[in-house]
Amino acid sequence: MTHHPSAASLRLHGARLLFPPAATLLFLVLTEYIARGALSGDTFVQYIFPHAEAYLLAWGLLFLVWMAVDWLTRFAPLATLLSALLGCLPATVDFYTLQLRGEPFLPWDLMQVSEAAGVASAAGIHVQKSMVVSGVVVLALTVGSFFLYRGRQKLPWVQRLAGFAASTAATCALIFGVFLQPAVTQSLGILPDAWMQDRYYRYYGVITSFLTNLTNLEIDKPEDYSEEAINAILDDVEAGEKYTTSPAWPDSYAAQTPADEQVKQPTILYVMDESYWDVSELEQYGFQFDTDVSANLHALQQTSAYGRVYSPSFGGGTCDVEFEALTGYSVSYLPSGSKPYQQHVTKPMFALPSYLKTEGYQTAAVHCFWARYWSRDTAYPNLGLDDFISLEKMHGVQKVRRHYWTTGLVTDDSMADQIIGQYEKMKASSDEPVFLHAVTMQNHTNYNKDNYPDDQRVKVLEHPAGMKASTVGEGDGDVIDPDAVAAIDSAEQEIAS
User: Fold this and answer.
1) How many CA atoms lie within 13 Å of 31's alpha carbon, on the beta-carbon side?
2) List of long-range contacts for 347-351, beta carbons under 8 Å, 24+ apart
């Protein structure tokens, strides 16, 4: 006698078959919902649908993980929860890193997990609606899977291991054969965008962007690079004679003072002013301000040697700038988007501070934020900086800009006091010359009415046509207009060139 399954049994079987792809697809949507803070029709039209291949790959990964865990454990709630966490946890971290530094969650950020909570707290980061909603949905699906798969037929271990092996093999093939193969991903339309990683994540999603960035962890050896090649360059006396070491500025100390009277080991105070640039350079492009934007700088330029430099970083990545300034190495030779302090300054290396130590200098650094941020507490000693005065060691400092940073940011006045105090301490303790590297923080925030009183903000009197009122400070908006960013960026590039 033949037994036919009932309609209820067929529906249950169908629901069990549909649950893994449907649940993991929803987890993918929640991943992007968390990372972006919101989802709208424009999000799907502008970013997701045009790059569907990237999201299908991410969906496939979540689905295969669900299948592998389920085959191994035969416990659907665990498979459901783990596949959800695989997407939602990185998305949560991505949301916070974007808020804090303007860059998404990158593979090398895993080396800074210990400091993430402290930084988020200092910056006033709170749980978002998207995270709460996603948590409720994940919990509901996890509980639902328990009841849906309760009482299903048990399978022998051989069959379960075979299913687990097949799912795991497919997962590895997807990761190593697709995500980690630039030629394959680019053929699918997933094009690298190292210059703007935040845009890359908007286009291709958290999961695909994170995994494809793993290919940037390995540094390729430059062509014809070797110790012998470097020594050949150093030994080329004829080439060296083409360059002069004489002072380029006729009124400089070196030009005005005879060589035998010059101080051989001068005090060196090396100050990097966070997010500062001479905005008055925009005047040549049609801007006019109600006051001299950089009066102190312009006064110093009348009596000092000065020049221009082009920053390797925009909108985040302070350690990139520090690394280039302290070592002379270019971050362009590092994997795209990586941060040198975390990935590459992992042992003592040649740098300006370490060289000056060989010349008899005592060295120190002063930075008015947490020591572990950008891994400065481990990177600085490897660069030859023997002492590090960070925010933890500062007392009685004045703080401002509490609108976006709940604990505030140390003012430049207080920072100057810290620099002077450290210099005096070093001079009192030793007759050796001083090298002091300092990095400020006051300007690490938006320039708007929330952080600067009206009488402290510069007014724009004239500007190029087409700029929005909020961009030039005539509206109530807090966010810098994208058109203005593009205009300023273009102007900066022209200035640099």
Assistant:
1) 29
2) 347/382, 348/381, 348/382, 348/384, 349/382, 349/383, 351/326, 351/327, 351/383, 351/384
Say which DSSP state 247 is in.
Answer: -
Please, are residues 245 and 361 in contact by the beta-carbon 8 Å criterion? no
Q: Go through 77-99 and write b for each residue having 16 or more CB atoms within 10 A of its CB, e for each that does not.
A: bbbbbbbbebbbebbbbbbbbbe
Q: What fold does the segment set 261-277+309-462 form as a domain?
A: Alkaline Phosphatase, subunit A (3.40.720)
Within 10 Å of residue 300's Cβ, how many Cβ atoms?
A: 11
Q: For the chain, give every domain's residue range.
A: 7-216, 261-277+309-462
The sign of the torsion formed by the CA atoms of 410, 412, 416, 417 equals negative
Selection from 361, 344, 351, 360 nearest residue 383 by Cα: 351
* Model confidence pLDDT, tens digit, residues 292-346: 888 888 998 887 778 888 887 776 678 888 999 999 988 887 776 667 887 788 7
What pairs with residue 388 in β-bridges? Answer: 365
Instruction: Give the tokens for residue 260.
Output: 């035998």
The pTM (predicted TM-score) of the whole model is 0.61
Per the prediction, the chain carries an average pLDDT of: 84
Query: CA-CA distances (angstroms) from residue 303 to 250, 293, 307, 409, 420?
Result: 12, 19, 13, 31, 22
129-162 per-position pLDDT tens digit: 999 999 999 999 999 999 999 988 888 999 999 9
Q: How far, in Å, CA of 441 to CA of 450, rounded?
A: 17
Interacting residues of 143 by C-beta distance below 8 A, sequence separation 6+: 77
The DSSP letter of residue 479 is S
